[in-house]
Amino acid sequence: MKRTGAIALTALAPISWGSTYAVASELLPPDRPLFTGVMRALPAGLLLTALARKLPTGRWWWKAAVLGGLNIGAFFPLLFLSAYRLPGGVAAVLGAAGPLFVIGLAALLLGERARPRTVLVAIAGALGVSMVVLTSEARLDLVGIAAGVVSSVSMGAGTVMTKRWGRPEGAGPLAMAGWQLTAGGLMIIPLAALVEGAPPALDGKACLGYGYMMLINTGLAYWLWVRGIGQLTATSVTLLGVLSPLTAAVIGWAALGQALSSVQVLGMGVALGATITGQVVAGSTRPFVSAKEIDRNDSMDLMGESVRR
């Protein structure tokens, strides 16, 4: 039951990320993806770090920078480049292939056994997503494909290394998420200034959109994601990522008036089935971090004189 709860809470992260396209297209300034990346990551990272009341020490300064670079600093720009160079469907499928990279890296670095059925489940998830998002007009672009693949590898490597390194004494998922978001956001600032120039003027809608992105879509979501990495296997966590493009498709249908064909509905069923099956399969692999360590670190997240979980 405890594992089921951890899966459900972790799944809220990719579900939240599935709302990114709708919020960006309806509320945010156009053609400013890097500025949006900074606004998502840096304020959320500073807020989480302040709430955690914990800064890195010793080697965790460079470890936090590496994890922030993999999960945010490199991932966001590469993801945006892929989205600009490719149709959304192709980019989403490349992202859905991320679990395959994580399965391989987890086997190599964490000792998580790469079972054939787990690989098949990951392939089924990517197939289901492709049925939902790919169209006959989809075109291929080598630069976009390369950016999409590397972004998936970057996020996958960040997930595995977060699992491998664990957390330092006295730091819980709140601090770890805050450090990574802060480091990643700082890395994007020079690139955003070089490519996009000065920040745009923000109206009420943009402030509302960025507020949601910062607090819910990034701050809360990445805390849940890092927390899930500590409680579940890396494979189990990454298989939940399929929920992001599926959520985007549902929001597009429900809120933006986009039609869903029978093939897309079938694809959703395939992807959801693969996600659920993947949790059962991955559940037989022992997590890298012990339950005792998880409980100890989680209890430190929101403990303090005025803030307690």
Radius of gyration: 19 Å
Low-confidence stretches: 287-309
C-alpha end-to-end distance: 20 Å
Shape: globular
What can you see in these coordinates?
The structure is a single chain. This protein is mostly helical and 309 residues long. The chain is built from 15 helices and no strands. α7 (98-109) packs parallel to α9 (142-165).
Structure keywords:
309 residues, mainly alpha, globular, disordered C terminus
Write a compact overview of the structure shown.
This protein is mainly alpha-helical. It is 76% helix and 0% strand.
Please write out the topology.
Blueprint: H1 2-17, H2 20-27, H3 33-52, H4 60-73, H5 75-85, H6 88-96, H7 98-109, H8 116-133, H9 142-165, H10 173-196, H11 204-231, H12 234-239, H13 243-254, H14 262-282, H15 291-301
